[in-house]
Specification:
The protein is mainly alpha-helical and about 160 residues long. The protein has a domain at about 15-115: Leucine-rich Repeat Variant. It has six helices and no strands. It has helices at about 15-30, 35-45, 45-60, 65-75, 80-90, 100-115. α3 (about 45-60) runs parallel beside α5 (about 80-90) and α5 packs across α6 (about 100-115). The longest helix is centred in the C-terminal third of the chain and has 16 residues, at about 100-115. It starts with 14 loop residues before the first helix and ends in a 43-residue tail after the last helix. About 25% of the residues are buried.
C-alpha cells in the first residue's frame, strides 16, 4: 500500500529525524503485525511526532492490524504523552469504525488493569534418587539347559 507523504511538523531537528519517522510510519502499516507493533513501540518514544503518526493510523481507514498496533503504541506512551494518548483512546471509543472502537477499548482496559496474570510454569515434584526396580524376565519356550542333548550339535 502506498502511503501519502507526511507533511513535516517543523519539530524535527534534521533530515535524519524526518527519514526515521517516515521509515517507522511505513513499518507501522506493514502486513506483519510484529513489525507493526515494533514500529508503534518505537513511535511511542518519539513524543509529539510519534503521537501524531499513531493517531493518524488509529483514526484513518487502515487495516485492523495497523489499528491494533497504533493502539499498542498509544498505550506504550510514557511521560507527559501518556495522558494525551489516554484521551485519544477514550475519544476512539466513540468512533464510527468498529475496529477502532475495539482496539481502543482493549488498550484502555490493558492500561487500567494491566496484563492478565500469567499461569505458573509447570513445576516438578522434588526428585528423589531412583533405584532400578527388580525385573523378571519371562522365558520363552521350554527351559533351556545347556547340557541337554537337544542343545548339542550333531557331529559331522
Amino acid at each position: 500500500m502506498k502511503l501519502p507523504d507526511r507533511k513535516p511538523s517543523g519539530r524535527e531537528k534534521d533530515e535524519a529525524a524526518v527519514a526515521l519517522l517516515s521509515q517507522l510510519r511505513a513499518r507501522l502499516h506493514s502486513e506483519e503485525i510484529s513489525t507493526a507493533r515494533k514500529a508503534a513501540f518505537n513511535l511511542s518514544w518519539m513524543q509529539e511526532d510519534g503521537l501524531e503518526i499513531l493517531l493518524e493510523a488509529l483514526f484513518g481507514s487502515f487495516p485492523r492490524d495497523t489499528k491494533k498496533a497504533a493502539a499498542y503504541g498509544l498505550r506504550s506512551m510514557n511521560g507527559r504523552m501518556r495522558k494525551l494518548a489516554e484521551e485519544a483512546l477514550t475519544k476512539g471509543l466513540a468512533h464510527s469504525n468498529r475496529t477502532t472502537k475495539d482496539a481502543c477499548a482493549k488498550s484502555l482496559q490493558l492500561m487500567k488493569e494491566g496484563p492478565a496474570p500469567r499461569r505458573p510454569a509447570f513445576q516438578r515434584r522434588e526428585q528423589r534418587p531412583r533405584r532400578p526396580g527388580i525385573r523378571e524376565f519371562r522365558q520363552r519356550g521350554p527351559a533351556r539347559n545347556p547340557m541337554s542333548p537337544r542343545n548339542t550339535r550333531p557331529e559331522r
